[in-house]
Amino acid sequence: MTKKILILPGDGIGPEIVAEAVKLLDCLRADFGLEIETETALVGGAAYDDCGSPLPESTLDLAKAADAVLLGAVGGPKWEPLEIALRPEKGLLGLRAGLGLFANLRPAILYPQLAEASTLKPEVVSGLDIMIVRELTGGIYFGQPRGVETLASGERRGINTLVYTESEIERICRVAFEAAMRRGKRLCSVDKANVLECTELWREVAIRVGRDYPEVELSHMYVDNAAMQLVRAPKQFDVMVTTNMFGDILSDAAAMLTGSIGMLPSASLNADNQGMYEPIHGSAPDIAGKGVANPLATLLSVAMMLRYSLAAPEHAERIEQAVSKVLDRGLRTGDIASPGTETVGTAAMGDAVLEAIRAAAA
Amino acid sequence: MTKKILILPGDGIGPEIVAEAVKLLDCLRADFGLEIETETALVGGAAYDDCGSPLPESTLDLAKAADAVLLGAVGGPKWEPLEIALRPEKGLLGLRAGLGLFANLRPAILYPQLAEASTLKPEVVSGLDIMIVRELTGGIYFGQPRGVETLASGERRGINTLVYTESEIERICRVAFEAAMRRGKRLCSVDKANVLECTELWREVAIRVGRDYPEVELSHMYVDNAAMQLVRAPKQFDVMVTTNMFGDILSDAAAMLTGSIGMLPSASLNADNQGMYEPIHGSAPDIAGKGVANPLATLLSVAMMLRYSLAAPEHAERIEQAVSKVLDRGLRTGDIASPGTETVGTAAMGDAVLEAIRAAAA
Ligand SMILES: [Mg+2]
Ligand SMILES: [Mg+2]
């Protein structure tokens, strides 16, 4: 059955990098029989400029009707003076909420060809391939009560609430176990169960869900130790699953281990495997329109889309292998350039990936 | 005026490493005019074995009467079967609570001589010298309400509460600004003010306290970015101040950047600069009694004690410089040994530090 993909170029370098993803999808459709149809819509600052809202209803409707959404990036200095409700980032949050995207998948992958980009020693990180599954719609970022109250003494007190129900924990753990089944079958659940009762419940539910996945080796780690282990020996991990806030912190730390943020994709999924896919880097307004942005994180986001929402892992592998080939050839965009490599622009990098895909099939 | 120091050797390697600290204090008293008197007491498993409590009242009373407490380490497999209230770790928590130690100072220092021990590239971490100031008695680890409740639907829900009053934030920020004044005069306050109202209040109070320290350059960073920056460019930081939980995570990550946990001291202070000083490594029961444990973190804890509780920074510097000299000589305990260095035991390392102190004064 033909799958629907909604393309949201967004702002800054978004349109340039997404253009390469569109070329890639066209190639997979034309030459490799991928059954998809695509539509394009506005989000973020581009949508605000067009109709006064960072997430027009029509865009949200299209997103809901799609099997997957590919997003470039949103935001830029142009829209920073706007009130918060109108800012480009609200478009992103609105899509997450509107689609119920509770599972954020954040791979931290370091292609051996780029190992020198890391601040860590090559032997510690070369070939790193972790998947961090972060709960995205619950936990302390959303919990009630919250706010700042004034006590009888006149002193103020700030409050936020970490809260998870069993069902919220269960569904994110299930996503993580499914991810582990497609990978190395090892899952590390990160909590602070020795101190926080809420994450004691998290651990209990993780163990319970784990009974449905006897092939997956489940372990548990306290968040402070996980932060240490990511620095000490990151390759020990396969899939990690954790709360919204712990995932926010650990996924960013893990991304930085690779030293090449321009290479990292992400996925946000709901219970139906409907998903939004986007590079983790931002809209980079300083280089927008110059044709120098790195499109690889966006192309790798397409690979994640194929694997997680479109049930087409063979196409995902095509892309991932092609990216590795292109790096082998020594092609680099400016952000990942190093001595002895050839610096190319956005379109040339996209073309090289297509070429590698076609060559592998020839 | 003569200062009182309570010595708590504790469990595992605690007695061995603390013995070196006692030799050091004796030397500073006898040869360098440091006016101190010391007393020794039991805590942790050793106290439980003696009298059935990990924190005898007599020990807590002595701690309260002291200007500073030096702790080795507590815990070990022998006491793990005990109920939580009787476990050695409770001795530590009881001391923190009993003395009101709300400020945890966690340096992450990487002596250039040990730069190879890090998983990070030497140029990224050699000479690292960060101080993380963690709030220790408030925040989400202590907030009410907390626990697991059963909803009307029968589903369970876990809750913990992040809560800080202005005065709690103010006193920890004050400690951090004071620490910055003794160091590089740069303070980075870490929060998640864009999402958590409680830490929005944190930021506001940090700015207010900062008006009393016009010489200190105050900056702010979100916790996820701080976790990234510690990996990307840790030497950008001087002092960091943050909440209990963020500090738990970041101080452990920062410690691991050094790759030599056996070198790192810590301090926990109250409003009167009364403090408890201890190495961050544990009681290491596997090597206890063998005379091979690294005493340097404990000796550096004494240096922190001299600086923060005993107002004797000149003696602190003596110790720190002596440690550096001993490393220059190529002496190493097993945990920090590397090719081309000489492996020595606990007592020989302690002696070498004393010798270097005396040599520097000769
Ligand atoms: Mg983040
Ligand atoms: Mg910790």
Automatic annotation (TrEMBL), chains A, B:
Binding residues annotated for Mg(2+), in chain numbering: 224, 248, 252
Binding site for NAD(+): 76-89, 282-294
List of residues binding substrate: 96, 106, 134, 224
Domain of life the protein comes from: Bacteria
Cofactor: Mg(2+); Mn(2+)
Gene3D superfamilies xrefs: Isopropylmalate Dehydrogenase (3.40.718.10)
Enzyme Commission number: 1.1.1.85
Subunit structure, interactors included: Homodimer.
Full protein name: 3-isopropylmalate dehydrogenase
Organism this protein belongs to: Lamprobacter modestohalophilus
